[in-house]
Amino acid sequence: MSAEFLNKYPDLNVEPLWTVMEAMVPPHPSPKAVPYLWEYKKVKPALLESGEKVQADEAERRVLMLINPEREAPCTTDTLYAGLQLINPGEVAPAHRHRAFALRFIIEGNRGFTAVEGKKIYMERGDVILTPPWTWHDHGHEGEDVMIWLDGLDLPIFQYLPVNFAEGYSEKRYPSTISEDCDWKFPWAPVQEALDSDQSAPYAMYTYLQKDGSAVSKIIGAEAERIGANSTSPTRQETISRVFHVYDGQGYSKIEDVKGNVKILNWTRSDTFAVPSWCRITHHNEHNESAYLFSYSDKPLLENLGLYKSAN
Fold first, then answer.
1. Residues ≥6 apart with Cβ < 8 Å to 237
2. Which candidate in 97, 139, 222, 283 could, as Cys together with 296 as Cys, close a disulfide (CB 3.0–4.6 Å)?
3. Computed from CA positions of residues 100, 158, 73, 252, in that sequence, does the dihedral angle turn out positive or negative?
């Protein structure tokens, strides 16, 4: 259908819908992001070098963003952001707060801490630590080696809802005291205990929930999975996108996109990979030990908007 006649009306700032109707209202979800994996053994040397060459005071947050090859920063998927953050012994990442929600999955190190709204929370490998929107938070390190963790935020949605902003605190640290039992910390041990409760099952899934039974935030949710030795997970296809992190083990994920293209992502401990919306995904473990995956997604956001759908 022609739209050339609109050339007679250059000052109207209008465009014809009929020429782009299928793109605007597609027959299926059409993510721009693609499945992609970041190998920890390849990213870690660059992250360590950043710790040597970039001062904490310069960077505020020393992070390597994991950017989807088909998107620009801050997109790991179309709606989710991931970054690997490093803090050296004795450093402090100064206190600030922002409208975005954040979670941290701790990859390695000990005696590092996140202080959230006056609660000083020590980090251990496998912990999930939440930073709710507009809460003062800073990071520090009292240990002897680097601390590294995965940051998960909802930053990409603010490309379309430009309401995110931050505020720095007047001092480097927000006043805090040690919190031994904090609702914002989810240790790994009880998660693995739940996943391992039925060893005869080839697959298990755990959903991180707050004490009131709600998701960890209104936008981002979190899960963990166990793929048993020589086992395969159920195939899932949902309108959500996910960022996965390998807590332990090795295997591969078969990912089929909306056009039928299949990608195999081979993963091992501490790798991170992204899976866009409406991809069919199946995890495979052909080894003699169980594999454990952590993931976060935009499921709460889509559920709250009435946009969540599963093909299963």
1. 278, 279, 280, 281, 310, 311, 312
2. 222
3. positive
- Residue 217 to residue 148: CA distance in whole angstroms: 23
Torsion of Cα atoms, 155 then 84 then 270 then 301, to 10°: -10
Locate 259 and state its tokens: 């056009």
Number of Cβ atoms within 10 Å of the Cβ of 170: 6
Closest CA to 128 of 54, 65, 183: 183
Distance of CA 71 to the CA centre of its chain: 15
Determine the Cα–Cα distance for residues 249 and 11; give it in Å rounded to an integer. Answer: 60
Distances 236 to 49, 240, 292 between C-alpha atoms, Å? 38, 11, 17
Q: Determine contact, residues 233/225, Cβ cutoff 8 Å.
A: yes
Residue matched to tokens 């952001």: 81
Summarize pLDDT for 227-240 with one digit per residue, the tens: 999 999 999 999 99
Average pLDDT over residues 63-68: 98
